[in-house]
Amino acid sequence: MFGWCGTVLRVDLTHGTLEKKELDREVAKAFLGGRGLNAKTLFDEVGPGVDPLGPENLLCFATGTLTATTMGLSSRLHVSTLSPYSGIMGDGNVGGTMGNVMKRAGYDQLVVKGASETPVYLLIEDGEVSLHDAGDLWGLDTWATTDILVERHGKGVSVACIGQAGENLVRLASTMVDKYASASRGSGAVWGSKNLKAIVLRGTGRPELFDRPGFLALSKEDKQFMAKDRVQQEVAAVYGSHYGITHWYPGYRNFEKELSPEEVPAQIRHDAWKEYEIDRVGCQSCHIKCKNLYKIPRGERKGEVGEGLEYEAVYCLGTNCGVDDPVAIMEMENLCDAYGVDVIAIGNTIALAKDLYNRGIIDDEVTGGLDLSWENAEDQVELVHKTVMREGFGNLIAEGMYSLAKIVGNGAMEYCYHTKGLGRGVYPAGLFSLAHAIATRGADHLRGRSWSCGENSDEDVLKDLMEKGIITDDPVHSMIHGERVTTLADTIGRCKGAVNTWTCALPLIWKGSLFDGLADMLTKATGVAYTGAMVEEVSDRIGAVERAFNARQGITITHDMLPQRPDFKHSPEGAKEREEHMDLVRSWYRENGYDPDTGLPTAETYGRLGIRDVGDTLARDEAYTSWDGPLLMEAGAYPRGGKRF
């Protein structure tokens, strides 16, 4: 095959079997790669009623169709599973080197099922695949694990692994790649449930391209454009996502409000982080280098180096938890990377816990003596440790914010600002709230939100998009385009950019209509005669399959909710805004060929997208239990412990 490697590696940990299967060419053509291949696999093999932490769940890793080619910013790897954090589609997109290395080793997708009786790690060296004992690695953090495995198997390998959070089935646990890159939505806990500690990859080949000279010319054109893009060179390459701290209105004290640029404390503004920066780094195949390498200047972790402190860490672990101490934020970022836990998920959950504490809904007896006053950074750092180890109150934080509110009760859910278990804040009816409501993995800033309004785009690019009618005053119309672009980025292996720009997410955006440039690249890579319309259809197909997957987990249109603060929620104005929001949601479904009453594709749409079997499966299966978060275990049934970092 051209473009694709043509091989899927399937690992059954229960039986210890390793099997290479040929990638179905028609499936590849219809779903491309990355997020698309994983969504198809999960729908086909993970039905309703599956425990996310049970052996029936799958871990799917897929490279992008254009990963490991000369196209820049193409090193992304997509990690998908039934999320133990949300109980629905849970996928994370991760950088580093593993996407490229996996493709160079000859694999489009890796599917892991079952559970090993003892800890193991998977070693892939091009065509050689083997399972190894990981007993000596169990209990270690991701940094130590990575160092040991690189020493054991030689430089040039890429290591994905879990730390103590995944081992202890913390529902906020991430898949960590090359120490610092994170694929979230709880995938790390699924690794832990399968006793899978790490995947070590070495790849020395490269995918064959149908028209290599033609592809090289297009990728060169894309790189030249990016090299002149003002946003990439003056913002992303200089500040990365720190830019957002002063420009994106971060949440404050569990979304009590959003901080205006003038309200952001001086010590954590975007330019203030330069004080701790010692270098700038990027993922493999990236020429932007949007990430900072930093050194902690004082305190308990003085001299410790970290990488990729993003806007989300400063906002979710910092301002939204009432903390504005940069040293504490850097310490917590490093703890999250080393332990293998998602900064957004743990930050939002701690912010909710602090809100409940300061309202008197929980007290010192519940927290085990931890002082969760807003400004107390020291006890918050301690709570990160306790969460990962499932010690005391940390055992409850480890369940995630929706389950925390459900377990606490006493009105706690009123302050849990979520959509399908994930939180991105409180917004009025409009584009942002619509984006969060329809995102297939819960409230999400990377499923089309920023792109739909051109929030961070270069002025010339934004003007062109508006002239083409892609960005308009109609949030429904704009969201359709935004979701298609971000879905395709996750599918071809492209980075969406530190500041979420169209030019990052969609290569050759300026050539013809929205998807013509990408279609040309795909044609030259694969030999399949893609058109812009075909590429657009690929995105719609993936979205339909993801929504069908969620339907089997009990999701309906009623879950496309608008989070509101309690005082406004129970007012006539709040009720009116919810009606406005649902009008937008139903309009979005209608425009996409979905039933506005169910939020599912119509039979005609299933047929048009060539996935009639998906609709038939949903119609054939029995009624599903309504979603109420993930299945939970008894509090004392979880593993706990490990070495403190």
UniProtKB/TrEMBL annotation:
Protein's UniProt keywords contain 4Fe-4S: yes
Highest taxon of source: Bacteria
SMART domains given in the database record: AFOR_N (SM00790)
A Pfam family reported for this protein in Swiss-Prot or TrEMBL: AFOR_N
Cofactors: tungstopterin; [4Fe-4S] cluster
GO terms for MF: 4 iron, 4 sulfur cluster binding; electron transfer activity; metal ion binding; oxidoreductase activity, acting on the aldehyde or oxo group of donors, iron-sulfur protein as acceptor
Protein name per its UniProtKB record: Aldehyde ferredoxin oxidoreductase c-terminal
Provenance organism: Desulfoluna butyratoxydans
